[in-house]
Specification:
The protein is mainly α. The protein is 69% helix and 3% strand. It has a 3-stranded mixed sheet with strand order 1-3-2. A hairpin with a 4-residue loop joins strand 2 and strand 3.
Length: 364
């Protein structure tokens, strides 16, 4: 009897461990996240520039061998399994308690996995801290001066971009990231970045999503409906996320710097014209905003008008609102207090970038 009792006890312990280990792991990660929120320099030293580059190299090296999106396939399989489990539970092939427990365990594992393979980058210091910039105070005169410059550069760098240019553009963006890695405070090469087309491009286009980064497999995704004039900027933006830049405004800034410091006009034009959208949005409250719009050359205006009509034609209002609300909640949960408004904060970062670039030139 004594031996049987011992065996039963060991089996029970084994069952308990199998049940609770995902929750223990998730709790450990949750505590680590709370620590990370208040210790950004520790995260930068030991995760973002220590552990993460090895994770990125491993996962991106494996995912680049597959031409389609593993991230998209993963979520399709996840949804299929959820529905299959629900059907089995309804027809009493499995117990509801078993089904509910498996969902909770899976959610706990995914939560822990997300932060371990990429998510801790949300708690690294901002770019101004990483590269030791002086923060430029808001100044309307400076804003107007930079807006004028961006319009001028957009006009002078206007060029037509074709989908046949995409492979060359990808290589040019990689070269520019290598050249600008120190200025952006990123680790290069940080693995590899093979752009992949979203499997469900039409669905995401309806909600205004032009690209995204899949952290589980370290994949860069672009929407099939992306316009050629947008391609270099959006590709550079999503690659910024692969480098561990989680802040959306910083990813926009990285895309701007990478595109505009390239010697290639296709990248330069895409960088300036896509940033111009954010500046005009901020300038929309100014009484003389139309004077700035009149400064744009006709081909540039036509591109911007076509871009607006293109995405408005694809947009589904309900899906767009749901996606925006979900993204807003996601960003706020992950230490981006401004939520979706964070994208537009690229304007203040660009002003700081120009201020510090001019300051460095004056010192030399």
């Amino acid at each position: 009897m004594k031996k049987i009792w011992i065996k039963v006890t060991k089996n029970n312990v084994r069952k308990i461990i199998l049940i609770i280990w995902p929750f223990v792991l998730a709790l450990f990660v949750f505590i680590s996240v709370r620590f990370a929120v208040h210790n950004s320099r520790f995260i930068e030293s030991y995760y973002s520039t220590g552990i993460y580059p090895f994770i990125a190299k491993l996962f991106s090296g494996l995912s680049k061998l597959v031409p389609f999106s593993l991230w998209d396939i993963f979520w399709v399989l996840t949804i299929v399994l959820l529905i299959a489990g629900l059907i089995l539970a309804i027809f009493r092939k499995v117990k509801w308690r078993w089904y509910g427990l498996r969902i909770l365990q899976s959610a706990a594992i995914l939560y822990a996995f997300f932060y371990c393979v990429w998510g801790f980058n949300y708690f690294r210091p901002g770019i101004e801290t990483r590269v030791n910039w002086e923060r430029q105070k808001p100044d309307e005169k400076v804003f107007r001066s930079i807006l004028d410059s961006i319009i001028s550069y957009t006009n002078s760098n206007y060029v037509s971009v074709s989908p046949s240019d995409y492979p060359a553009i990808d290589k040019l963006i990689e070269e520019s990231y290598r050249k600008n890695s120190k200025e952006l405070g990123i680790n290069y090469p940080n693995g590899s970045r093979r752009p992949k087309t979203m499997i469900f491009s039409s669905f995401f286009a309806k909600s205004g999503v032009s690209g995204y980064f899949g952290p589980f497999f370290n994949e860069v995704h672009l929407n099939y409906f992306l316009l050629p004039m947008e391609y270099p900027f959006v590709l550079a933006h999503e690659k910024a996320h692969q480098f561990g830049i989680t802040n959306e405004a910083e990813a926009n800034l990285a895309a701007f710097i990478v595109c505009t410091t390239s010697d290639d006009r296709r990248l330069q034009y895409s960088g300036y014209v896509n940033l111009l959208v954010y500046f005009i949005s901020d300038a929309s409250q100014m009484k003389d905003v139309k004077d700035y719009i009149r400064k744009m050359n006709k081909p540039v205006l036509l591109d911007l008008r076509f871009q607006r009509r293109h995405w408005q034609g694809l947009r589904n209002i309900t899906l767009d609102k749901v996606q925006t609300a979900a993204n807003n909640a996601y960003l706020k949960t992950n230490n981006i207090e401004e939520g979706v408004k964070n994208y537009n904060q690229v304007v203040s970062l660009v002003i700081s970038y120009y201020h510090n670039s001019n300051h460095d030139r004056e010192k030399h």
